[in-house]
Amino acid sequence: GDVYKRQTQELSKMMIFSDAASHQGLKCIMRHVFDARVMKSLSSVIEETTHRILDTLPRRTELLTAYSETIPVAVISHALGIPRKDIPKLHKMATQWVTATASYGNRTTMLRGLTAMWGLHRYFVRHNAKKRKQSGDDVVSRLVQIQSEYGLTDDVIVAQVILLFVTGHETVQSTIASGSYLLSQHPEVVKEAIAGNISWKRIVEEVLRFESPAQATMRIATEDTEIAGISIHAGDGVVAGIAAANRDPAVFENPDTFNPQRKPNRHLAFGFGAHTCPAAMLGREEIRVGLSSLFERYPDPVSYTH
Fold first, then answer.
1. What is the percent of the chain with per-residue pLDDT over 90, rounded to a whole number?
2. Are 75 and 82 in contact (CB under 8 A)?
């Protein structure tokens, strides 16, 4: 009970679980940290990391763990100034936490996830303290530098860094993996992309819509309301089906058809409005480089399904 309570307290400090003025303030800070200079430096890291992995990738391999998982983990770790030796254990804990959030009713998995979450918290408390003593050119150092200006507590910074690490690779790795499989089913799209007739950016947007890395999200109603004739009371939990929305026939023509030429493509893969992911630009770039580099080096997509 105490462990669960402490985890809940930590989660409540994260931007994704905040609302109104608190959420807006944290989001503005994260946009300030993830500015154009940081994005430019990370673009070169994405390219270098992707091609380094491809140079050593066996012709017969399982893409999720050998490729799509490795790229975003390396990039977000670089962005947060995490030493390479610490990445495997942090990635394992992040995976256990994410698995627990989708394992309702499985007590063992939930406890393992809560333990992993607490392990992440302990690590990033120490990481935050190190950056305070020896600042670097990374996101955590920048957060520490502006801490007093924005009145941020150490716990709030740590909570955002954990959120960045976990969400900074989970959705991207699944999109590169599912996108690779999806494109292997559409060799004509790969051919057109390599010829320059379809932009990889548009392909990425359709992959995000069609495969929806975040299938759903939960919200708590802050006031009584009604949606589609259903009464919702303040305090009720509501599950928003992002994947379902991205296949809504009222918004998308032929929603179950993969069409990279789709325009407009107003999908909700990175959220919407105030809760749009502040690192969406980074995610899009990782997915674009991950998919384009893979298929341009190995243009025969049939090989990806055997």
1. 49
2. no
Q: Are 54 and 297 in contact (CB under 8 A)?
A: yes
What gap in Å lies between CA 166 and CA 76, rounded to an integer?
Answer: 9
Residue 291 contacts residue 183 (beta carbons within 8 Å): yes
pTM: predicted TM-score of the whole model, two decimal places: 0.86
Per-residue DSSP letter, 256: T
pLDDT tens string 111-144? 888 888 889 989 999 999 999 898 888 888 888 8
Task: Give the tens place of pLDDT for each residue, 193-243.
Answer: 999 999 999 999 999 999 998 888 878 888 999 988 999 999 998 888 999
Rounded to an integer, what distance in angstroms lies between the CA atom of residue 71 and that of residue 51? 10
SS3 for the chain is: CHHHHHHHHHHHCCHHHCCHHHHHHHHHHHHHHCCHHHHHHHHHHHHHHHHHHHHCCCCCCCHHHHHHCHHHHHHHHHHCCCCHHHHHHHHHHHHHHHHHHCCCCCHHHHHHHHHHHHHHHHHHHHHHHHHHHCCCCCHHHHHHHCHHHHCCCHHHHHHHHHHHHHHHHHHHHHHHHHHHHHHHCCHHHHHHHHCCCCCHHHHHHHHHHHHCCCCCEEEECCCCEEECCEEECCCCEEEECHHHHCCCCCCCCCCCCCCCCCCCCCCCCCCCHHHCCCCHHHHHHHHHHHHHHHHHHCCCHHHHHC
Structural contact between residues 222 and 234, judged by C-beta atoms closer than 8 angstroms = yes
pLDDT digits (tens, 9 = 90+) for 233-272: 999 988 889 999 999 999 999 999 999 999 999 999 988 8
| 158 vs 32: which has the higher pLDDT | 158
